[in-house]
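[Q] Does anyone have a clean structure-token version of this?
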Amino acid sequence: MSLYTSDNPVFASFSFYAALLGAKTLLMALLTARQRFRKMVSAFANPEDAKMNKGKIKTDDDVERVRRAHLNDLENILPFLIIAFVYVGTGPSLGCAKFLFRLFTAARFMHTLVYAVFVIPQPARAFAFFGGIIANLYMIYAIVTSYALAF
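[A] Here you go.
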């Protein structure tokens, strides 16, 4: 059995959670647009957008919060996809891999909810952020220890 085919349940699980995270990242752009249009009179950063929508060029705290959450996704989800893909190559157990993929995915969804949708004070965002970091760090450890003998 090849590690990178749908015959491998670990790779199939990775593919499923990667798709969820990809969709979530794409939807963040729509959430940003929704915030901009909700604040029609003050939330356009580009002159052409403001002119087209009869708004003003100005930043808005709510729009910027969603943009920061989106940027945070890009800073965390893209490394996860690379790390988890390499992790699949170590031949981990299905249970452990699913747990890590689910932990990371849940953490990213929670991060968005507590940071950009229902703003909840700290430490809610920190807990969500560190859940994803812990999953990534564990996978990095597993990768390094699996391939350390190769060097």
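[Q] Thanks! Anything notable?
[A] The radius of gyration is 19 Å.
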